[in-house]
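ok so i was messing around last nite and threw this chain in just to see what happens. nothing serious, just curious
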Amino acid sequence: MMARKEDPRYLRTRQMLCNSFIDLIELHQDYDKITVRDIVKHAGINRSTFYLHFKDKDDLFAEMKNEVILELSKSLYHPTYDFDLALQEFNDHAKPIVTLVSLSHHVQRYARFYSVMLGHGDFLKGVFDAIRTVLLKMSDSELDADYTAGGILGVISHWVRNGLKESADEMSLWLTRAVLIPVGLAFRGPEAPTA
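result:
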C-alpha cells in the first residue's frame, strides 16, 4: 500500500490547498482575515479534507514555508564548489556558479510563493540562513557569509518584486559576477566614485 504522503490524490489535494492559500494572499487579503473556510471554498475542497492535511491555517502556512526552504537548501547543495575554478570558468567561459544556477531556478519555480512571502521576516530569515549555511562551508568568515547572503537575498527580492523579467540563467550569471568580483572592481570605470 502506498504511503499517504506519496499518494497522488493526497499530494494533489495538498497542492490545491497551498495554491488556494497563495491565491487568497495575492488577492491582497490580510493573512489574519483569511480563514480555513475561505481556503477550502476557493480550492473547492471540503473543510474536513483540509483537516486531514493541516491542523489550521497557521500549520498550512508553516509547512509551506518549511517545504520551500527545504527545497532551497537541497538545491544549493553542491559539495564540489571551488572558488578559483568558479572564477576561472566565469572569466574564460562566462559560466555561472552551479549553486547560483540552482538558486535562480528554485526561485523561478516558486516565484508565486516568493512574491507573497517577501514581506514575512521569518521566511526571509529562513532563506538567508539557507544561503549563509552554504557560504560558511566555503569560508570561515561569518562576516563574509552574512554580507554575501544579504546581497544575494537583496537581488532575489529585487528580481521577484520586478516580475522576474530576467531569466533564471541571466540572474545566475549576474549573481556569479557579484559574488566573484569584489565590489571595488565593479565600480572601476568612468562612473566610479573617487575618494
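not much to say yet. Residues 57-76 form the longest helix (20 residues).
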